[in-house]
Amino acid sequence: MNSIYDSRQRLKYLFIIAAIFIAIASVFVSDLLIKDLAREEREKIEIWAEATRVLTSEDPSLNMNLILKIIQGNTSIPVMLCNDQDSVMNYKNIELPEKGADEYLRKKVEELKHKNQPLPIDMGDGTFQYLYYDDSINLKRLLVYPYAQLSVMAVFILLAFIALASTKRAEQNKVWVGLSKETAHQLGTPISSLIAWLEYLKLKDIDPALLAEMEKDVKRLEMIAERFSKIGSTPEPVPVDICQSISSALEYMQTRISSKVKISIEAPDHPVIVLMNNSLFAWVVENLCKNAVDAMEGQGSITFHVEEKGKNVRIDVTDTGKGILKSRFKTVFNPGYTTKKRGWGLGLSLVKRIVESYHGGKIFVKSSEIGKGTTFRIELRLFTH
């Protein structure tokens, strides 16, 4: 059965694709606007060049005031007027440095040569002057605009994604807490009844060994109810030898799974102390064992390897099951994900919640190979006095 969140994942991807399409369309439209503005500015420069030509004319009938006004009207476009030897004759809207002005102008001419196609000015005596110009401030701002727009959209997409993920987690939290509290409540009555029946059966002629096993299972139910009641609250962690905690949980599991499954633990011969809730962590061990047994179809081996690494302790849980596809390494922890025909697919999700939310650790699929097995890794902080 696929994850119940597959449809939500598809919607997220559709949203991202739509956002990318909008961004591309925005860049395309902005590019058209920039080209139109550049064309308009060139036309202005052509008028400016014509005004410069007329200004040098000896025709007294020309309206000199108008020409000067046109020339002086350029307040935003950097321009340089040069002769055919590229010597600067005049310039406008260019700020010169305090030192090395001549060298700066020479370099500026070379820069503007490659910036826009220069405008030749026929002086009428067989000589030409050339007008070099740069993009205006407004045009430069428009050139930057699409990238700024893309950045804003990227931030928007990221925030939307985070908001969606947070909403989903909050929704899951409510479901988890409500389901857990209700389960603990519902288990209370039958457990009390079973305790009473056990006390009654002790008065009868029944094999004490059978009653002892029944009593173990009833105590087990009490512990399970206690675990469910703690979901949603913050359990008080205490220093515990994690090797002993794992061994105790595995001892219980060994007698309740197939005899064809071999469980072993590789751990240091000294206590490895971790600040944790022993009852909840035992739940992690049991769920990982059950998940491994299902993956191996009741036959194979499970190994718990414990090692200290700096300030952390690593617990690698390796089985010889059917393995997990690499694309599913993260998906397996989603509530509702399961490959079994029966079940809710909550085991690994619960494991992740206990390890990360209640113990501040990490759990992930370290490695997996189809047909050979899987290794889950848990990382927790060592307890220091």
Strand content: 15-25%
Main pleated-sheet profile: 5 strands, mixed
Q: What is the typical, i.e. mean, pLDDT?
A: 81
Give the strand order, joined by hyphens, for the main sheet: 6-8-9-11-10
Unreliable segments (pLDDT under 50, ≥5 consecutive)? 1-5
Explain what this protein looks like in three dimensions.
With 385 residues, the protein is of the alpha+beta class. Helices cover 53% and strands 18% of the residues. It is built from eight helices and eleven strands. A hairpin with a 5-residue loop joins strand 3 and strand 4 (128-133). Helix 1 (6-55) runs antiparallel to helix 2, helix 1 (6-55) runs antiparallel to helix 4 (137-202) and helix 4 (137-202) runs antiparallel to helix 5 (208-230). The longest helix is centred in the middle third of the chain and has 66 residues, at 137-202. The chain starts with 5 loop residues before the first helix and ends with a strand. Residues 1-5 have low confidence and may be disordered.
